[in-house]
Amino acid sequence: xxxxxxxxxxxxxxxxxxxxxxxxxxxxxxxxxxxxxxxxxxxxxxxxxxxxxxxxxxxxxxxxxxxxxxxxxxxxxxxxxxxxxxxxxxxxxxxxxxxxxxxxxxxxxxxxxxxxxxxxxxxxxxxxxxxxxxxxxxxxxxxxxxxxxxxxxxxxxxxxxxxxxxxxxxxxxxxxxxxxxxxxxxxxxxxxxxxxxxxxxxxxxxxxxxxxxxxxxxxxxxxxxxxxxxxxxxxxxxxxxxxxxxxxxxxxxxxxxxxxxxxxxxxxxxxxxxxxxxxxxxxxxxxxxxxxxxxxxxxxxxxxxxxxxxxxxxxxxxxxxxxxxxxxxxxxxxxxxxxxxxxxxxxxxxxxxxxxxxxxxxxxxxxxxxxxxxxxxxxxxxxxxxxxxxxxxxxxxxxxxxxxxxxxxxxxxxxxxxxxxxxxxxxxxxxxxxxxxxxxx
Length: 441
Prior knowledge:
CATH superfamily of the domain at 1-82 and 238-441: paralog of FGE (formylglycine-generating enzyme)
Low-confidence stretches: 434-438
CATH architecture of the domain at 1-82 and 238-441: Alpha-Beta Complex
Order of helices and strands: HEEEEHHEEHEHHEHHHEHEHEEEE
Strand order of the largest sheet: 1-4-14-9
Helix content: 10-25%
């Protein structure tokens, strides 16, 4: 009888498997429906091709921006440059994570850490319990003592003000260099241990507020150093004093911050936030106006009423003539046709690419990208990263969409900021409006 029952179960099992899709290839069933959500604060940039490079006379005859036809897939880009208040969220995250670890080690590990996963199983490395609020007011003596090392030592305090020592705001992060992984995957010894391709790094995340002083000799910029990053009056202004590595770290944190939320909701991860390639930056800046030298068209930086269309150094240095003096709010002036603000002027912007004078001659014409992972000990010319868009202190030539220049990756300036992009998952938003033959409905 037992054999008969067992045989019957086996037959039923195979019968149920055979009936799944009637034996046809159907793909994995019961997959969750998913749609591409427009990321908050970003605008959609459709796929397309354009002529990358100078659209006007190359004033210095540098020959670093030869015209080249480039094609790009769809992506999203931040509508404005990352503001002081947005970057402060990153700084506060790093500050709080350090505080939680100190409290877990010195006050109560179980109270300030999550010791088990969602299934109730113990985990080797406890994670931060973000639901537990930190009492920063010093009312709890035990908490105050545990966090004391985060503050400036007494001999460094100005008028005895107890302030966070920003030198200790170190962000530890990881990334995978996929190009290096692809190269090493052809070697059998690297396939066995993927950890060799996971690169750890760390960096201080606080902006260099002294950039306002050391960028300009014999100019009184101390008020900007004192107030620009932390004061509420500058919340909507673009963050500056952030070097290329800090901007890259911000993108990695932003990715993990978003994906942690999606994981908590049992949703699939999104693409990584990252700095735009210079081809993506230029395509977005043009706003669909392929051969125009400026985001608003051209060939002038004033409109028909004589009003300036960007924040830069007009004429012979009448900085206030365009409505600004140094930086202005990130959403000042009119956006381009894609809805992007200040793609010319205000602050120049980091891209992900390394700078090479002849990059246009050897990079691919499909999603053009040239990178170099410079080390600390590398020659300074290998640390050059492309910046685009010009800034409040630049002449009009640098506001042109095709103009490219560079700054060193470990250098922070009072006139360089950044914005992020994220690749679109799928071919294009218009996919839903096409028939099977590819024609528009």
